[in-house]
Amino acid sequence: MISLRTFGLYVLLACPVLVSSHPYESHLPPATPGIFKAEAYAVIDAPIDKVWEVLLDFPSYPKWNPFARKMVITNMMGTPLEDQTPRENARLRIEAQIPPMKRPVNENQRSGLLSSQTSMENVTLIDHENYICAWQAIQLPPPLLAATRYSALSVVQTPDGPRTLYESREIFGSVISIVLALLMAGNVQKGFEEQALALKELLESS
């Protein structure tokens, strides 16, 4: 009988390589080992503070996001809070579409039941000074699922002048991630890419 680690290696070899590289210096933390990762970026012609404002405006996500359809700050029991300002150590309920919806989207579009995925997360980082945020899947019980998503903004110099670089990455590890890699790694990657494109389109059209 092969070990779980060996099986995980087979999964990595069987899954497509999910990489989204760019020529700029990354503002994300160094990547950690895992079963698979999803990542995407966009160079956006908008001020960094404006992009940061939209990124943390969770109630507006249904209006433009084809991947993370709802991002809701809740209490410990999962009840939505009146104050939806993202903050560290807050609970976050995410309703995602995997695969993502076709762009553009709006708040009146219904989520597909077969492609809707809900997760509960802990907000682990909101760094307004360095424009980095992160949330981590709640592990009940560990180590069934380990997944932390980071998003970061930075100003980069392009041939057309300064632009805002949006980057996002999530690394999936532990037992459940092996199954996730086999079933939906490609669609999760597609979701990251579509969210990055939708964010760029939203900000550059406003």
Automatic annotation (TrEMBL):
<protein>
    <recommendedName>
        <fullName>Coenzyme Q-binding protein COQ10 START domain-containing protein</fullName>
    </recommendedName>
</protein>
<dbReference type="Pfam" id="PF10604">
    <property type="entry name" value="Polyketide_cyc2"/>
</dbReference>
<dbReference type="InterPro" id="IPR019587">
    <property type="entry name" value="Polyketide_cyclase/dehydratase"/>
</dbReference>
<dbReference type="InterPro" id="IPR023393">
    <property type="entry name" value="START-like_dom_sf"/>
</dbReference>
<keyword id="KW-0732">Signal</keyword>
<feature type="signal peptide">
    <location>
        <begin position="1"/>
        <end position="21"/>
    </location>
</feature>
